[in-house]
Design brief:
Distance between the termini: 46 Å
Radius of gyration: 21 Å
Bound molecules: tryptophan
Number of strands: 2
Largest sheet: 2 strands, antiparallel
Strand order of the largest sheet: 1-2
Structural class: mainly alpha
Number of helices: 18
Helix content: over 70%
Oligomer: single chain
Shape: globular
Strand content: under 5%
Length: 446
């Protein structure tokens, strides 16, 4: 629909919305799980390196493309380079967004249901076997998880329908501070548990001899996933940015907050798991089976459990809106529909695509793709293959097609100085494409 493009109301609003996009299941569920599975501090160390070398430079690039193009992720590429099919990056982004949100909403739905389960005292006296039973009978139920998934998608769509300022920005500026408060409360609870220190060391101390390709791949996928890179969410949020924002500075703030919150989530979960002699490497059920045992064992555990899952659900919601917004902004322009209609259609598609992920924990658990249940397969496909692939194409576009010289003009409007432009352009032109191509190829080959 024509008319001037919507804009963020304030810089704080933009930062909150983008931090809200970045902080999500990726930080609180996926990150501690990955740390647990790959043996502690070494993962954190590699993760940090990749954020600096790949994450922040790419975020600067994506925000700049978005602000320059002032349009949805298909059109931004057409506007900057009309003669070549680079806009296909945008199409790939929309498809990836639908895939990511489809399984994201399944897990976010579990999280919502756990708020309810804890509030109703279900875990009060749970022992290991029961916690496992509660989880597996829930996720293998034929329709209950679908109900919670749908509820989550409806909440997400209800915010996106209201638009940038009244929907996304308002929801993010209200929910993010609440999330920070919950996080610090839980952190205090976890670190004051007896025996927490062992876990603390295990999490923070890198054992560099443990580095291997699997860890590097995992950390790379995690950086893309956690910083919302590689599928147009950051490009889309950048397209609502005003000309005087300092993009490099914002990227640095957003990435640091995202990293900080992932570390805090690790500090909540891992020491608690160690304090109760539980196993940190259980994979995806870490949060849904292991952690509830911790809550069952501490005073007022029901309350802390419910608060933890409230935190997780809020974090997931502000991320999900950024994914849905990419799809909605594109549908709305391309099919010339209202925001409302586009949101409803996109939400419906996400739900349909999510059904096999949800059922893969129950009825469809025999159906494996490359040896993975459907849900883990789509998670792997998007984080380890699609996001880095789109990241690679975006880096090539920034480094060789649009060129860092031209992006610099866009970045440095209104007297903003970009002092690290030289290293940034070297990273975009050489380091990023080579590193991503190498990691992708060796990852696919492995
Ligand atoms: N970053 C979010 C998280 O950590 C998820 C997310 C939101 C995302 N937007 C994205 C992931 C775009 C990949 C691409 O949970």
């Amino acid at each position: 629909m024509a008319g001037p493009r919507e804009k963020w109301n304030s810089r704080l609003g933009f930062i909150m919305a983008t931090v809200g996009s970045a902080i999500g299941l990726g930080n609180i569920w996926r990150f501690p799980t990955a740390v647990g599975q790959s043996g502690g501090g070494v993962f954190l160390f590699i993760y940090l390196l990749i954020i600096l070398i790949i994450g922040i430079p790419l975020m600067i690039g994506e925000l700049t493309i978005g602000r320059r193009g002032q349009s949805n992720i298909v059109n931004v590429f057409k506007k900057i380079k009309p003669t070549r099919p680079w806009w296909l990056i945008g199409v790939l982004g929309v498809v990836t967004g639908l895939i990511i949100l489809s399984f994201y909403s399944v897990i976010a739905g579990w999280s919502l249901s756990y708020i309810y389960k804890f509030s109703s005292g279900l875990f009060r006296t749970a022992e290991a076997a029961q916690a496992e039973e509660i989880f597996s009978s829930f996720v293998s139920h034929p329709w209950l998880p679908l109900f919670w998934q749908m509820l989550f998608i409806i909440l997400t769509a209800a915010i996106v329908i209201k638009g940038i300022r009244r929907g996304i920005e308002k929801a993010s500026t209200t929910l993010m501070p609440l999330m920070f408060i919950l996080l610090f409360l839980l952190l205090f609870r976890s670190l004051t548990l007896e025996g927490a220190v062992t876990g603390l060391w295990w999490f923070l101390k890198p054992d560099l001899s443990a580095v291997n390709l699997g860890i590097i791949l995992g950390a790379l996928g995690q950086v893309f996933f956690s910083l919302s890179l590689g599928m147009g969410a950051i490009i889309t949020y950048g397209s609502y940015l005003s000309r005087d924002d300092n993009i490099p500075e914002s990227s640095f703030i957003i990435s640091s907050l995202d990293l900080g919150i992932a570390v805090l989530a690790g500090l909540i979960i891992i020491p608690a798991v160690f304090a109760f002699d539980l196993e940190p490497g259980t994979g995806p059920p870490l949060i849904f089976i292991t952690l509830p045992l911790v809550f069952a064992a501490i005073p007022a555990g029901d309350l802390f459990g419910a608060l933890f899952f409230l935190l997780l659900s809020i974090a997931a919601l502000t991320s999900a809106i950024s994914i849905l917004e990419v799809v909605v902004a594109t549908f709305k322009d391309i099919f010339q529909q209202t925001r409302k209609k586009s949101s409803v259609i996109a939400a419906f598609l996400v739900f349909l695509l999510g059904v096999p992920s949800s059922l893969s924990m129950g009825i469809l658990d025999d159906f494996l793709l490359l040896g993975f249940p459907f849900l883990e397969f789509v998670d792997f496909l998007s984080a380890i293959i699609l996001l880095p692939l789109i990241g690679l194409l975006t880096a090539l576009f920034l480094g060789w097609v649009w060129t860092p010289e031209k992006s610099l003009v866009e970045i440095e409007q209104h007297g903003v100085r970009f002092k690290l432009w030289k290293p940034w352009s070297v990273i975009l032109k050489y380091i990023l494409p080579l590193a991503l191509a190498y990691i992708l190829i060796s990852g696919i080959a492995a």
